[in-house]
Amino acid sequence: MNKFEQILERPGPVILDGGLATQLEAMGLEINDDLWSASLLVKDPGAIVSAHRAYLDAGADCIISASYQASRDGFMSHGMGEAEADQLIVDSVALAKMARDEFARSNPDASNDVIVAASVGPYGAAQHDGSEYTGKYDVSDQVLGEFHASRLQLLDASGADVLAVETIPNFREAQILCDLLDDVSTPAWISFVCRNEKEMSDGSRVWAAVGLFADHSRVHAVGINCTPPQFILPLIEEAASAAPDKAIVVYPNSGEIYHSVDNSWSGTACDLDQDFNVSDWVAAGAKLIGGCCRTSPANISAIRERLVV
Length: 309
Fold this sequence. Notes:
Elements: H1 3-9, E1 14-15, H2 20-26, H3 40-43, H4 45-58, E2 62-64, H5 72-76, H6 82-106, E3 115-120, H7 141-156, E4 162-168, H8 171-180, E5 188-192, H9 206-211, E6 219-225, H10 232-242, E7 247-251, E8 257-259, E9 264-266, H11 272-275, H12 278-284, E10 286-289, H13 297-307
Parallel strand pairs: 1-10, 2-3, 3-4, 4-5, 5-6, 6-7, 7-10
Antiparallel strand pairs: 8-9
Helix pairs in contact: 4-6, 4-13, 7-8
């Protein structure tokens, strides 16, 4: 049984990390380019290790690699060769493992269950146009399939404990990933970004997208991420009804709105102490709980304090 499968079997919730880019920016790093946090895989990999470590120190059971926005084409557009681009994607998992190893040396009794997830972001994330939040892709199924197949192959062989297929905004991409994930050896979770209590970013019913994975042999958890926290409770109910035999994963954002044009945020951040109703989410069936954009190690520490006795 894989380490991820083992942690799903243990009693109680599994605490995920929060926004990696959020922590990197809090550390004073500049990531305002089309590679986003993946740019630091080239410029400052040590900073990524430190950001992961901050979440482990805050009590996260799982850290997610800096590969969300990493892609072969993205790195090659910055002058790298294909082999170098592929190695950087794999390196994202190695850096998370390095953080886990550092944490283990300092916390030998607390580190045995830490898992490393390889982030598999949507096609839109690599376009740096905000389309992961709209689901509007002007590309063919073949292009989508080729984009995901090459990166999945790399991350499947990276030694990650789980593939975190995350922020999927439309039903078509979910269908393509459903087929591709049949061929991976690493267990996976898949999570969708939603615009309200029932719909993904493209307007498709999240119930239908989750249902694609109800009997999937490699996908062990389904759920929601990078979605305002006020929608999470009804979305847990949607996911649980569509895939009753799967674990539920939720890691919402702060409720603010991201603008890719200038890498800015608008709107008002929720009161994370009041609006992250994590006890209710667990009662509704959530197993893996953390934060996404604009959430910090302090927020993850607070989640752990609420949920872990």
